Amino acid sequence: MTRSKRVVPRMECMESKVLLSTGLADPARAVHMSVVHRFDSGGRLEGAPSVISSPGGYTIETFNVYGRVKSMGSVSGGFLLADAFVPTRKLPNLSNAKLILIGHKNVVELQLAASPSHTNVYHYKMVAGTGDFKTAFGTGVLTIRATPASLGVTIRMRAT
User: Fold this and answer.
1) Do 106 and 95 form a contact (C-beta atoms < 8 A)?
2) pTM of the prediction?
3) How many Å apart are CA 44 and CA 154, to the nearest integer?
4) Which of 9, 86, 132, 149 is 20 to 30 A off residue 35, Cα-Cα?
5) Which one, of 116, 60, 113, 66, lies nearest residue 91 by Cα?
6) pLDDT by residue (tens digit) across 46-101?
7) DSSP string across 3-69
8) In a 10 Å sphere around its CB, with 0-12 CB exposed, 13-18 middle and 19+ buried, how is residue 32 labelled?
């Protein structure tokens, strides 16, 4: 009489696909579902751009910010501006800019939308993150206001 070994099919992960195989994989470990978090970007940031004076205004070299964001706590970071020139007595144009926020354990990148007119209100969405925010998503509205008697600005962020 011939003896044969009976193999029970199991679930197995291979290159982000779940396969039915006869291997010895543990289905509880093989199947991993990503947990999606909502990024609550409400908060307040303060910042002052580092500028070079030029005729009719100034050019921003760096634009660092610091403050608090609900999901991340204390943050620092900066803007990567699409248009670095700022006319005299105007706020920086944040259309199509990126805002990088660096927290204690995570980094988040927000992409600001183009503003049809040079207003102080911008819509943004989260486009990248690390750590807990690797699979997070979020959108919001950013309002920028000048600080009296300086180049400093106050930025309010509100999640939508």
Assistant:
1) no
2) 0.74
3) 7
4) 9
5) 60
6) 998 898 998 888 899 999 999 999 989 999 999 999 988 988 888 888 999 999 99
7) -------EEEEETTEEEEESS---HHHH--PPPP-B----EEEEEEEEEEEETTEEEEEEEEEEEEE
8) exposed
Mean pLDDT of 139-157: 85
Q: How far apart (Å, rounded) are the C-alpha atoms in residues 63 and 79?
A: 5
DSSP H or E stretch at residue 124 = strand 121-129
Tokens of 86: 């700022």
How many whole angstroms separate alpha carbon 80 and alpha carbon 100?
8
CA angle 70, 136, 36 (to 5 degrees): 115
The answer to whether 38 and 138 have CB atoms below 8 angstroms apart is yes
